[in-house]
Write a structure and sequence with these properties.
It contains 20 helices and no strands. By secondary structure, the protein is mostly helical. The longest helix has 35 residues.
């Protein structure tokens, strides 16, 4: 069971007494109405996702003939529980990422790998760098950090921009969609009550071959069909240029990987040590819990990254403060998504899906993936797609093993990456940074995202019979 928080987002598929007595057809239409309102508000009227999710929840409740006060209560409960369970982790991840960037630790990783990489291996190096950098960083932060580096390497080394740019983008995207502690996977883990350590392990297992195929291998194809020059005027902003020194490579990598190692160690201890009262297992249950693991990494980073770069205590405090400001919008979106999900459950839609699915021949993994794909295409938000899809299919995970529920989370995450297009902020970031036309961006970035989504699903479906 996930340790994100006690009883997050309901302990089961739904309360004993749903807040609505509507029939199956009305509940189905209510779910469609709520999702449609969210989609239209985001895509047509450019309403912020937090407001769209809030309004969509109210429409869902009204369409399901649920009392307004009960709808508001369900939404508030889901919102509060999500913030309590996921909000702290998002904040700690933001602090770790900011320390990594401002101390020059990110530059140290980049420079060290590039200095030891041949031209032939450069695409693989860029995928590796992006994967490492993408572990603690939010996707948008990772793009801003990596793309200027990609442009600089391409220009100075006379490399094909697509040949090395696609692997870097794939590394960031795979981490974002498949590997916690990114917000989408974390929220999905809560919704389906999956084990974070098991999900993390399967995410890495599936993510590596998915990255190889969608990154270096697809980058070779993209480089043959799309030829663009690094746009002038975009010079990498290296945060370490004003520092007298910066953290060493091995120490930086160890700091970044510390929370991942602790969470994986906890999962391993749960499997190897059967006695829950064993002191070693109890210690790992605490040390490997997401909050403690990330908190430990942040505290360690203050010394291995901040102090190593010559930061004073005041500057470290300032860095922490600055890291928290940009995540307000992300927290609100994730929280509202949790509220929408909880309302879906409380009106009885979760139970309806569970009952109907008894006669479906479609696998649960494919169902979760398809729902996430639809919401992703409509809203452009991977996080909204993940949270909403997880809420809809959560009842299907009630009788699953921890491994199966982890695969369901990853299938939803994979679906949330499908075909980024003009309603996705990432689409425009990539287009502008690489100096491409809309058509070129679709041929490269959008196809790459689709490839990640489909390839990951294939690997997950192959794993399902053996777990």
């Amino acid at each position: 069971m996930s340790n994100l928080s006690a009883g997050i987002l309901a302990a089961g598929p739904e309360p004993v007494d749903p807040i609505s007595s509507a029939g199956t057809a009305q509940l189905g239409l209510a779910a469609l109405a709520g999702i449609a309102v969210i989609v239209v508000l985001i895509t047509r009227f450019k309403v912020h996702a937090f407001l769209a999710l809030t309004l969509g929840t109210l429409v869902l409740g009204m369409a399901a003939a649920a009392p307004l006060d009960k709808t508001i209560e369900s939404f508030s409960t889901g919102l509060g529980d999500t913030v309590a369970g996921v909000g702290v982790l998002i904040a700690l991840g933001a602090v770790l990422g900011k320390l990594l960037a401002d101390s020059g630790g990110a530059d140290e990783i980049v420079d060290t790998v590039l200095a030891r990489t041949s031209e032939r291996a450069m695409p693989w190096a860029m995928a590796l760098i992006a994967g490492i950098i993408g572990l603690p960083l939010f996707f948008e932060v990772g793009i801003v950090l990596m793309i200027p580096v990609v442009l600089l390497v391409a220009k100075r080394g006379n490399y094909s921009l697509m040949r090395i740019g696609i692997p870097a983008l794939a590394g960031l995207s795979v981490m974002h969609g498949l590997v916690p502690p990114h917000p989408g996977p974390l929220a999905a883990i809560d919704s389906v009550d999956a084990n974070l350590g098991v999900t993390l392990a399967f995410g890495v297992l599936v993510g590596i071959p998915t990255l190889v195929i969608s990154g270096p291998l697809f980058g070779r194809i993209a480089g043959r069909h799309v030829h663009v020059e690094p746009p002038e005027g975009i010079v990498p902003q290296r945060p370490s240029e004003d520092l007298e020194r910066r953290p060493r490579f091995a120490v930086t990598v160890a700091t970044v990987l510390l929370p991942v190692v602790l969470m994986l160690a906890k999962a391993l201890a749960d499997v190897v040590i059967a006695d829950a009262a064993d002191p070693v297992r109890r210690f790992m249950d605490v040390a490997g819990s997401p909050m403690i693991a990330l908190l430990a990494a942040v505290i360690v980073a203050m010394f291995t990254l901040g102090r190593a770069a010559g930061f004073t205590a005041g500057r470290i405090t300032s860095t922490v403060e600055k890291s928290l400001l940009p995540i307000a919008g992300i927290l609100l979106i994730v929280a509202a998504g949790g509220g929408f999900k909880q309302t879906l459950v409380d009106v009885g839609i979760g139970r309806m899906i569970l009952d109907l699915s008894e006669n479906w021949s479609i696998p649960a993994l494919l169902l979760g993936w398809l729902i996430a794909v639809g919401i992703r295409l409509a809203t452009g938000s991977a996080t909204v797609a993940t949270i909403s899809a997880a809420g809809l299919v959560a009842p299907l995970a009630a009788d699953m093993s921890s491994a199966q529920s982890a695969l369901l989370v990853l299938a939803i995450g994979a679906g949330s990456l499908f075909f980024s297009h003009v309603n996705d902020a990432g689409f425009w970031l990539v287009k502008e940074y690489f100096g491409m036309s809309v058509g070129q961006t679709v041929k490269t970035w959008s196809v790459m995202e689709t490839l990640i989504s489909v390839v990951a699903l294939v690997f997950l479906l192959l794993l399902w019979p053996v777990v």
